[in-house]
Design goal:
This protein has 176 residues and is of the alpha/beta class. The chain is 39% helix and 19% strand.
Length: 176
Amino acid sequence: MRKILIILPVLFILLNSCSDMKNTETNSSSLTTYYLIRHAEKDRSDSTNRDPQLTEAGQMRAENWAKILKDVEFDIVYSTDYNRTRQTAKPLAEKNGLETIIYDPETYYNEEFQQKTSGKKVLIVGHSNTTPQFVNAILGEKKYQDLDDSENGGLFIVQVAPDGTKTSQVLYFNNY
């Protein structure tokens, strides 16, 4: 609980600064912000099921992401083509009146993706390995390692400025 109390003000400041940038003429169409999360808790009761649904706790976490990111007006929502990732993306996509676009985790941050997302606020829902790999692809460096299989609360935020400068941070929300 103490971590949440420390992290929430930081996130509030970050989200407000992103909103302030939206009001600045020069930044409104050129700053690109990616929010990347791993899917919420999946049902592990059948180890042979390669496409499980979210558990009740996973559904709660997906709804919590919508609360945490309520002040972000997403332009695009992406998910891999699995039940758990689509279900995690759904509350935020619905809140923003968007359809979830399925992406192939084998083709990270290619030129087409960069053009389509330039100047936008983008949510990307992936997996314990694909999420940090996607962040690394955007940054052009191997900064982040795969997430532990029990970690479902990491939020990676990557910003790409018009001059190509890239910044990143990761916040953890494991209590809800």
